Amino acid sequence: MKPLYLRAVGLAAPGLPGWAEARTVLAGERPWRPLPEEPYVPRLLPPNEQRRAPPGVRQAFRAAEDARSACELDFSTLAAVFASSDSDLAVMDRISRILAEPVRAVSPTDFHNSVHNAAAGYWGIAVGCRRVSTAVGGYDGSFAAGLLEAAALVHGDGQGVLLVAFDVPPPPLLRDRRPLSCAGSIALVLDGEPGGTVLARLHLDLADEVETTLEQAELESLRLGNPALRGLPLLSAVARRTPARLVLCHTEGCSVALRVEPS
């Protein structure tokens, strides 16, 4: 497969509040500190959409807006891929509870937010984007699934792509079934051309290998605690600015091998 060119990164996770602050932690230059994420209101959304946006959408915007702040590209011209294992289970939980009641008064806002591509819709409103957008889900392999979809758009349609992977913990009743330990999101701005600012070249291939882990125990716990954060080994390689080969979880019996060449 032709290389992808990484132009910008966005990140939001406990103790990693943005790519600019997280780079030194991911490069091993300073220890990770367990700082919780503060409540977040997407800056790019109009007031009505700010009020309606559920936690999953807000988490997606944390990383997407972080990547946008570090990049001079016009994001209305980028295609978008939003990857999430579970999107927003709190919305589905509320709807399911209401449907079990005698009076099934489902909130229009909850109905609006119940679809898996809700974050993509909010993003289109925020940046005025009319390019193609895709929402994908692949359980713990959602980040890799999103990366493959983004690569297909870059090389198939010849356009730049914003990839956002995000997930938030489910409500208490569902945590035994889907025990995510934290909220997290990663955003990548990808292109098929080498011109302009480039952080790294990425070469993708399919493989059947064990996924790459992180040396720091605390960061490895974050990686395992949220499907979106399965992309942390990639961000660590970019932060260290050294060539690396790593493997991302995709599906059973299939993984994504990724060669990273920092620019």
What does this structure look like?
This protein is an alpha+beta fold and 263 residues long. It has a single domain, classed as Peroxisomal Thiolase, Chain A, domain 1 (3-Layer(aba) Sandwich). It is 34% helix and 22% strand. It has nine helices and eight strands. Strands 3-2-4-5-1-6-8-7 form an eight-stranded mixed β-sheet, with helices on both faces. Helix 3 crosses helix 6. It is globular, with a radius of gyration of 18 Å. The chain starts with a strand and ends with a strand. The model has no long low-confidence stretch (mean pLDDT 94).
Strand content: 15-25%
- Biggest beta sheet attributes: 8 strands, mixed
- State the CATH superfamily name: Thiolase/Chalcone synthase
Within the largest sheet, what's the order of strands?
Answer: 3-2-4-5-1-6-8-7
Short description:
This protein is an alpha+beta fold and 263 residues long.
Write the layout of secondary structure elements.
Layout: E1 4-12, H1 19-26, H2 47-52, H3 55-69, E2 79-83, H4 89-99, H5 108-113, H6 118-127, E3 133-136, H7 142-157, E4 161-167, E5 184-191, E6 200-207, H8 217-225, H9 232-240, E7 244-251, E8 254-262
Parallel strand pairs: 2-3, 2-4
Antiparallel strand pairs: 1-5, 1-6, 4-5, 6-8, 7-8
